[in-house]
């Protein structure tokens, strides 16, 4: 299992276990505990790998898509930019960015491009469409990708970065610190859903864990359930960026894997559930 961090109230110390309750409860009849329930909140169609990984361990899931994608202001420019060329690298940081790149690449007539990706999920999305990335970062973080991306001998040192309209500046700043020039084009946007099935939302509020794959999903959850209910959420994030969004929303039980990815995400959900079961057994 990959290393975990449990951030409580914005702290950065080592992982902590729930506090032990010392008061003895009166003897009561005990029934079999309900199977754990986990909420998957990525956009429609993007929760399958996480749900499949959890179900292999007997964990029940419900899908509650909290975000959806929309075209960004620079989307129509991408085919022309790809045709023009002059870029040593095209930087791709998510499966959605991969889908947008593939769309623009097809419209541009499939020009020769050298692609760098932030992680395995993004790589898989491109490989499935016949585009083999030339570089994958060792960990799926923009800062690491920017620091590790190699310079092309005799190249232009220019990177084309088709990004989300809400992307942080981590990758661009890291690339520029490494000596690259970056053409960042806002090709898509991520927006929160405005309404969900009330019965499904009620069930999600009773779940043991809610998973988040982006800061936008965290914001959408808070908007739907309210700040007070959100603070009680046991949140398991795909990586540190989403975890910081949870902390900013006041959530105090936030876990995430050391390296973003489905396998580590599944392991971290299992760890969160084990912590809850251990705390319940000590009551």
Descriptive keywords:
single chain, about 280 residues, alpha/beta, Rossmann fold, 2 domains, six-stranded mixed sheet, 11 helices, elongated, disordered N terminus
General description of the model:
The chain has two domains: 133 residues, Rossmann fold; 123 residues, 3-Layer(aba) Sandwich (Rossmann fold), CATH 3.40.50. The protein contains eleven helices and twelve strands. The chain is elongated and about 65 Å long. It is 37% helix and 20% strand. It has a six-stranded mixed beta sheet, with helices on both faces. It has a six-stranded mixed beta sheet with strand order 4-9-8-5-6-7. By secondary structure, the protein is an alpha/beta fold.
Q: In percent, how helical is the residue content?
A: 25-40%
Radius of gyration over alpha carbons? 21 Å
What is the 3D shape? elongated
**Helix and strand run:** EEHEEHEHEHEHEHEHEHHEHEH
Distance between the termini: 27 Å
**What is the residue-mean pLDDT, rounded to a whole number?**
87
CATH topology of the largest domain: Rossmann fold
* Number of β-strand runs: 12
The main sheet comes to: 6 strands, mixed
> In percent terms, what proportion of residues is strand?
15-25%
Which CATH C-level class of the largest domain is it?
Alpha Beta
Question: What is the name of the CATH architecture of the largest domain?
Answer: 3-Layer(aba) Sandwich
* Count of DSSP H/I helices: 11
């Amino acid at each position: 299992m990959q290393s975990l961090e449990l951030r409580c109230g914005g702290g950065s110390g080592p992982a902590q276990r729930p506090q032990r309750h010392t008061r003895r409860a009166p003897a009561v009849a005990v029934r079999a505990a309900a199977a754990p329930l986990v909420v998957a909140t990525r956009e429609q169609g993007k929760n399958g790998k996480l749900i499949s990984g959890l179900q292999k361990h007997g964990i029940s899931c419900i899908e509650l898509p909290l975000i959806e994608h929309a075209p960004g202001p620079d989307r129509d420019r991408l085919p022309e930019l790809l045709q023009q060329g002059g870029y040593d690298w095209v930087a791709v940081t998510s499966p959605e960015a991969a889908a947008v790149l593939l769309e623009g690449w097809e419209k541009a007539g499939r020009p020769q491009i050298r692609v760098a990706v932030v992680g395995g999920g993004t790589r898989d999305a491109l490989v499935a469409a016949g585009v083999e990335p030339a570089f994958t970062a060792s960990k799926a973080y923009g800062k690491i990708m920017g620091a590790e991306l190699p310079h092309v001998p005799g190249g232009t040192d220019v990177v084309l970065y088709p990004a989300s309209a809400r992307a942080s500046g981590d990758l661009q700043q890291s690339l520029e610190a490494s000596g690259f020039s970056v053409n960042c084009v806002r090709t898509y946007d991520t927006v929160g859903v405005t309404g969900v099935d009330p019965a499904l939302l009620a069930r999600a509020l009773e779940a043991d864990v809610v998973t988040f794959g982006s800061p936008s999903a965290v914001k959408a959850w808070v908007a739907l359930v309210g700040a007070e209910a959100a603070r009680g959420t046991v949140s398991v994030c795909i990586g540190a960026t989403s975890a910081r969004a949870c902390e900013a929303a006041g959530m105090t039980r936030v876990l995430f894997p050391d390296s973003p990815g489905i396998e580590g995400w599944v392991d971290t959900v299992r760890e969160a559930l084990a912590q809850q079961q251990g705390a319940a057994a000590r009551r």
